[in-house]
Amino acid sequence: AKNPPQAMHFCWDSIIDKKVYETWITFGYPVWEMMLTPYPSPRDASIQEYHRYLVIGLAPEGRVRVWLVNNGKPNTRLIEDKDIMVETVSGEKLAMCKKITNHSFSGGYNDYILNFIKDKKYPYGNW
């Protein structure tokens, strides 16, 4: 990445706990360094690649995890308070995200969502 992100600020809805969240992610120097440092492509070692993409996981209770995408290898989880700072708020603490959602949480869950969350604990998978 030629210009790695310094920060991200975004809104999101959790249909599981029926809340709107607002999250700030601040990326520290270790992330910039990883994104600015080329590495040999797993497909062809003569080609240099860069970490250009992030995966952001959002889970109920305002849980946020961030990974740096590694082409052809497992993604690198960015560690809070080491690589990144994450702040997530909801309710009265919302600023940018206040009254922004179009999702009504009053109707309950449809069958698709009920089947999806049945017998699962969150956060889902390996966090």
Automatic annotation (TrEMBL):
InterPro entries, per the entry: DUF2931
Listed Pfam families: DUF2931
Name of the protein described by the UniProt record: DUF2931 family protein
Organism expressing this protein natively: Salmonella enterica subsp. houtenae serovar 44:z4,z24:-
